[in-house]
Amino acid sequence: MKDPCNLYISQRNKAKEALDILEKQRDEINFKLKSNDFCANLHKELRTLNMDIRITLNEIEHAEYNIQECISKNIPISN
User: Fold this and answer.
1) What does DSSP assign to residue 75?
2) How many structural domains is the chain composed of?
């Protein structure tokens, strides 16, 4: 069985990679909106991307919490 800590670390890393991609897409849309502020499709894409970014940030936060929990449970406490 795989170490659960490594699973959470992998999930966090994948979410961070996804976040980088989403942020680049958001930057591209914001750049396009500078020249065409009234494009409804771009605004819709931007709202969708912003929601995806929030979801991804929550995934990262959840994975980091799980990592901390895993580490605290798997490290023996020495007195």
Assistant:
1) S
2) 1
User: Are the C-beta atoms of 58 and 10 separated by less than 8 Å?
Assistant: no
Q: Which of 32, 29, 51, 39 is nearest to 59 (CA)?
A: 51
Each residue's pLDDT tens digit in the chain (79 positions)?
467 789 999 999 999 999 999 999 999 999 999 999 899 999 999 999 999 999 999 999 999 999 999 988 876 545 4
Whether 78 maps to a domain, the answer reads no
13: tokens are 């890393």
17 part of a folded domain: yes
**pTM for the predicted model, two decimal places:** 0.86
